[in-house]
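The methods section describes the discrete structure representation at length, but only in general terms. What matters is that the chain and its backbone geometry are given together, residue for residue. Nothing conveys this as quickly as seeing an actual entry. For illustration, here is how one protein appears when written out as sequence plus structure tokens:
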Amino acid sequence: MKFLKVLAPLLVLVIGASVSFVIINSKEQPASQEVEAKPRSIKAVIAKGGEIELKIFTQGSVKAKQVIDIVPQVRGQITFVSPKFVAGGNFASGEVILRIDPRDYEVAVISAESMVAESIQRLVEEEAEAALALSEWKQLGQGEASDLTLRKPQLARAEAQLKASEANLLTAKLNLERSVITAPFNGLLSTKNADLGQYLSPGVNIGEFHSTDIREVRLPLSPIDRTKIDLGALKGGNGEIDVKFTVTVGEVTNSWIGQVVRTEGMIVNNTDVLWLVAELQGAQLNSVENGEVIEIGQFVDAEINGRKLNNIIILPRAALNQGNNVMIVDDQNALRTRKISLMDTNREYIVVTDGINIGDTVNISQLGSGIDGMLVSTTLEEGTE
């Protein structure tokens, strides 16, 4: 009886397991189904060859072409200053800036004129003496007369004294002219270091003067920028390159058109920068929009016209991925990564010199990473084929 009590539960477990096995294996297995990959929708453009003029974007400050220190060449007290002799005062070429007391120099001119008159008188007397000596020698003399007998040294000395007197008169007149300081060219005064009544000595700086007819802007070029411009023609003096300057204040933008006229001829070693110099003159000094004058010291943005390229591939900036890569769509509608070489890039487009071919379909959608080989459904952007 004890044996049966132990065996009965075991039999029940064995029978239950057998029945469960039969039920499970008697069910029909569902048919397996293949999962079809669904292509991802993207936007794309067709790479086409076109023409483009490269642009170089840089910045600089406006300066006068000529900047000089105004210094007197004679000494004396200032007796007159122009009302414009203030910082920011504009002068036309030849206009009087200030006058130094001229009386000492007027006296010097009178004295020099007197010396010239005396020298002329002495020369006339010596010429008469020399003529008389020659006449007497012809009447009484024998052989060849010496220079001293004919008074030639005395005559030469009188001629030299006249020339020296005339030179002294010229110097006196120049000093009198220099007592009036005038503007050497059209310009404006940036600093003022003297005033009415002040005593001046030669060489003392009384102000800084900037020309206003021509403005210059120094523009730095990086090594990449230098590949976009024809520096050979510029250095050879065979051409000028247009440059557009802009200044934006609030919602108002003014622009001016100038020309790059030269380089500074050397690359700064510690920065690898080459400096270009652009000029504006005449009507170029007035803005295209409202005629506002471009001011000395103003900071401007510059857009320089570079090389013109033909049959070059230009793509939207959205096509460019990290590491100078783009994604093209192959014949199986799968994305493939291409490494490209760039000539130029900005916020709107990229200029490709190598890595893709004309006719390639190039993705411009933002897809993230790990997408090489992904199947796609392409929608071409308007204006592409």
